[in-house]
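The authors assume throughout that readers already know how a fold can be written as discrete tokens. For illustration, here is how one protein appears when written out as sequence plus structure tokens.
>
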Amino acid sequence: MAQTRKASRYIVPVAVAGVAAATIGLVPALAASGDPDLPEITAQQLIEKIAASDTQTLSGTFRISTDLGLPLEGLTSGLGGLAGGTGGAGGSASVDPSERLTQLVSGSHTLRVAADGPERQKLTLLDGSDEYSLIHNGDDVWAYDSKSKEVFHEKAPAGADATGAHEGPKGKELPGTPKQLADEVLKAAGDTTSITVDGTAKVAGRDAYQLVIKPKQSGSTVESVKIAVDAANGTPLKFTLSSVEGGKPVVDAGFTKVDFSKPAASDFTFKAPEGAKVTEGGAEKAAGEKGDPFGGQLPEGLEDAFGGFGPGLDSGKGGVNVIGEGWTTIAKIDTGAPVPGTDEAPKEFQGLLDSFGDKVTGPFGSGTLFKTKIVNALLTDDGKVYVGAVTKDALVDAANAGK
């Protein structure tokens, strides 16, 4: 128990990676060449076209390429050393989709996807000759790992898609498609946002308009969001998120092949192979809670963003406060637990701090800054966390103002 409590005091920096993953989301990448000659359209008309899109059937292939600017391999090793859990050195990846699909936050991946309305979706992650498939068919969600021959099964909540079984969103969209990303960005757009149409593109052989979204505010780490929208049916085909740091896009996600006709019913049929190990979702969840060295929950509304880590984060005196608005919004979390000296930290965590934490000081005192290309977080030595898609200076200014 003492070791468990000690480990919990060092989990906030690990949570930063979870924030980055949630902010970016789990998404699809790629585009074809050639700019089609299409009728002119205003940004307002294109947004209305996206809103009116009612695509419920499709199949195809997409690629996701993600570059958070974060040493995720070292992070994974650190987590494995602290938790002794799956995915670390010597461990095996979980077949649970809520854990397995987090690998999409790093590197490039190819996926196949199919959808037939709100009741049937299938996503297959390709890794060489191995495949990991996630299937939602009516009341059931199945996941199958061809490498380990393991099967995960869980009952789907009413109205949930394949992702909804684990994250709770309602709707007909595929997990992490450009449409989901576009909807979230457009929903958040307001006076702080510039939205324009910037030419056309060919994506997966389809004619598309390019919608460009940029922050008007200074201090955001987001340079732009570009959404390629199908000119015929308004379905977003490609999503590109770029950072003010430049270089590769943080997320470059889009279809390489897409067909909007109805997939065969057999595409969503799954039967566990003979001899496969089948794990029921409820049983795995209970086992995970029993063996979790961190336990506990985050403040309400941030559990998903932080990946479910960190006892003590829900026991803060001040809870969560939102500072600012629009693209420069910062979440302030008072953990209620001062950060101990790093000489007390487990060696795995010490390496983690050294790999992507920078010491900063100011009128607020001192703390450690954890950086990605989009989401940054400042952990002060007195136990406060400032996190957002904002620059280092914006976080330090918020901490200084909070004193």
